[in-house]
Design goal:
By secondary structure, this protein is mainly β. The protein is built from 2 helices and 14 strands, in the order ββββββββββαββαββ. Strand 1 and strand 2 form a beta hairpin.
């Protein structure tokens, strides 16, 4: 078990099973459905404080996670003083990945968000007991060496069944679509991206 600056973690790692308790970071696909990380450029460290389970039998991997967001101001290079107070939104996620499927990998994922309206741990537990504010489901693929390039594809659907206070309209539906290709020319790499989206921005509340 380890602890550092208000974050703690306990990890078990086996041949096929990994279990984590405490704080951890996670991203599904290209980060449109879920992206929790430490962003040193804006001095904000956002981890999920809860539990994560990974099962990796052969070329498959199943990841399940649940917990409260634990966002902190880290004051590294450029302190921000206008950050919101500690709203510990609830996040639950499930991801299934098949590696080595032809020239690439394929994943499906789903994420549930409950937005806390009060700060602190108590506000996070209150959010857990309510209907989901946001449900995201999607699929992503990564292809390697196809036509001499690497490719990334992702599509997600966003549903807001009980988020009228955040979107102005309960039941709103949004989506994101993403495609990228990376070409390697000499000692350089060139990344090309295409994005299309609608009503996904409300997820930025977290």
């Amino acid at each position: 078990m380890q602890a550092l600056n208000g974050k703690f973690w306990l990890r078990f790692k086996g041949d096929k099973v990994n279990i984590e308790l405490g704080d951890f970071y996670s991203s599904f696909g290209f980060g449109m459905a879920l992206a929790l990380n430490r962003n040193v450029e804006v001095d904000i460290d956002t981890s999920l404080q809860g539990v994560r389970f990974k099962w990796s039998p052969g070329s498959w991997e199943l990841e399940a996670l649940a917990g409260q967001m634990n966002r902190q101001q880290v004051f590294q290079d450029n302190p921000n003083r206008g950050i919101f107070s500690d709203y510990r939104h609830f996040v639950g996620g499930l991801r299934l990945t098949r590696y080595g499927l032809g020239p690439g990998d394929l994943s499906i994922h789903g994420v549930v968000y409950n937005f806390a309206e009060k700060g602190g741990i108590g506000g996070g537990f209150e959010a857990m007991g309510t209907a989901p504010d946001l449900i995201v489901g999607g699929v992503n693929a990564q292809l390697y060496g196809v036509l001499g390039m690497d490719w990334g594809l992702e599509a997600d659907i966003y549903g807001y069944p009980d988020a009228e206070g955040f979107t102005g309209e309960a039941g709103r539906i949004g989506y994101t679509m993403y495609a990228s290709s990376t070409a390697y020319i000499g000692t350089t790499s060139w990344l090309f991206e295409l994005r299309k989206y609608k009503d996904h921005q409300y997820a930025n509340y977290v």
